[in-house]
Amino acid sequence: AQSVSQHNHHVILSEAASLELGCNYSYGGTVNLFWYVQYPGQHLQLLLKYFSGDPLVKGIKGFEAEFIKSKFSFNLRKPSVQWSDTAEYFCAVIPRGASKIIFGSGTRLSIRP
Amino acid sequence: KAGVTQTPRYLIKTRGQQVTLSCSPISGHRSVSWYQQTPGQGLQFLFEYFSETQRNKGNFPGRFSGRQFSNSRSEMNVSTLELGDSALYLCASSSFTSGSYNEQFFGPGTRLTVL
Which parts of chain B sit beneath pLDDT 70? Predict the structure, then answer.
């Protein structure tokens, strides 16, 4: 079955540390890839997306993600996190032509001020 | 464009009752999906509607049902509520371009508490 794995359930970092959140998916064909963020008390919003083209995708608030097809990965990165990045992050995949989006289980990011 | 709206935002019910949640998608979006979000289980997919037809369904009991109207608005119904149904219920809408789904836009959710 198609699935999305986010192996880090809870990540704790200090401000200014670098961030990398892992996302791996299991599907052999072409996919559309997404990272969503849910700040405390707010609704899910799109951070960035990849459909095709340059595998390095830049999103809002300084986030970026790299699609590595050979590794079935779409890891999220940020060079220097801020306290305001405290949130839950979800990776999601839509196999091209499919009608269902598959979400990972989420990674909770806590930033120490 | 207005975002996805969900009503009501908060609900308190007792076990055994039934509840109906409503979702209005972004104008022009024909796909509406519903999710249950809980601290322990994360984001669980309930079902997805497209042009009034249920196209995908998650692993939830038959007490959870939904429908979509011709204007793409959707409702979700939960009958015979159980304590474990307490959760944040999220609705998301999406457009469909060139045979592929675009990103989902989420509403603020309905917080359901079952006592």
Answer: 1, 97-100
